[in-house]
Amino acid sequence: MNQQDDFRRSVQRDTEREQNGERERAGLVGLFMYGGVVGLLLAIPMVAGAYLGRWLDSLSPEFGTRWTVSLIILGVVAGIFNVVWYIRERL
Length: 91
What we know:
3 helices, 87% helix
């Protein structure tokens, strides 16, 4: 019984997505907007990591660029997670 309910919900969700997709035909502008959102989801965590890392490195001269590089890498990972999550929700 539980599997049937899950299957019905899944089919209903897919049907609603298909109907919404038919209503929202993406033109060239929609495609650029989608790409822009994906770009921002990737870029914002990287830039935030760079600024935060630079600030932390400026607190002590012995750090060098350790925090900056580490937080940029963390920002890349967070940005990729954001993009994957966004694309999964949209599809």
